[in-house]
């Protein structure tokens, strides 16, 4: 090779390396500037809120991105011992599972995804898609059998019905139907499928409780709703479902107090899901119910009305305080519904859902707002226990792209 050509290659290679280094440096700088612009405001309304967040409130943005790429929407579940993967490191890393909003894929099909964000360790911040479904997935929880329970809303292109399905977090191809209809077709009428299950909680007795609003139908994602705006309980022994509460416009978030004696249900009928104007007289409320004999809800009472947006996702801490995602962030309430304060991330998106960590992360609250996942430190409390986690047996499950 001529000497001039060798000289050219030498300098061209050096120039490429320099450009690569500058590009990485620029990306890192842009990332730092982006994170610096993202803040969290702590709006205290009580000394109790000050105690919960500590003298110097702290937080961390774990992931950021466009809503159509990150999609941190619903189903927040924290797994201390990780979720299965082909990588030994990732399979045992603490992670947050969440679901995306329905969106169209490259073929134009309506889909939703289940994603996993590594929240600590050497691969902190890694994001993977665990699986994609045309049966549009929404809320989720961890069961006492170690399985993840998802609300599937159905879909115009879905081959399976709406309902509750469980997934082994250590083998994500292992999906099982828990309940996909109230009653099957018989001589008296057709199969009665659920509308579009939204939030789900598993109880120690094996029962599964879930809300079933008609949001997917209102948004044109499924066929016309066939049942009422109800809250359901699926019984693990009889394998049957029963309505435990009615009278809602759009039943949405669901959680139980730490002692299991009180159920909290949000009604978000202020936003009917049609995409038009909000109903100013519609409910944006949190209701409390007494749990009777672990199978009935009684003594319904209004305990809170959100002043900004709707109370979507809802969780409790070990002390019985309530945390619900609204348009201006997370509203922190006492167990009887008194507003203690607000945790307000910067940006225009509502706090759609949230989850407490476990183990050494149990005093962190993870907030999803579509374009970011935020970990907020709450040194004055810890999350109420949710389900029973099984440790990873080793690499098995491969993520879907």
Describe the structure.
- The protein has 401 residues and is mostly beta strands.
- It contains 4 helices and 26 strands.
- The longest helix has 35 residues, at 3-37.
- The radius of gyration is 23 Å and the shape is globular.
Percent strand equals 35-45%
Widest sheet: strand ordering: 1-23-22-21-20
Our count of domains comes out at: 2
**What is the CATH topology descriptor of the largest domain?**
Neuraminidase
Second rung of CATH, namely the architecture of the largest domain: 6 Propeller
Q: Structural class from helices and strands?
A: mainly beta
* Count of helix runs: 4
Q: What's the CATH C level of the largest domain?
A: Mainly Beta
Mean pLDDT: 89
| Head-to-tail CA distance between termini | 44 Å
User: Helical amount among residues, as a percent range?
Assistant: 10-25%
The helix/strand series, from N terminus to C terminus, equals: HEHEEHEEEEEEEEEEHEEEEEEEEEEEEE
Main sheet, how many strands, which sense, barrel? 5 strands, antiparallel
Give a count of the beta strands, DSSP E runs of length 2 or more. 26
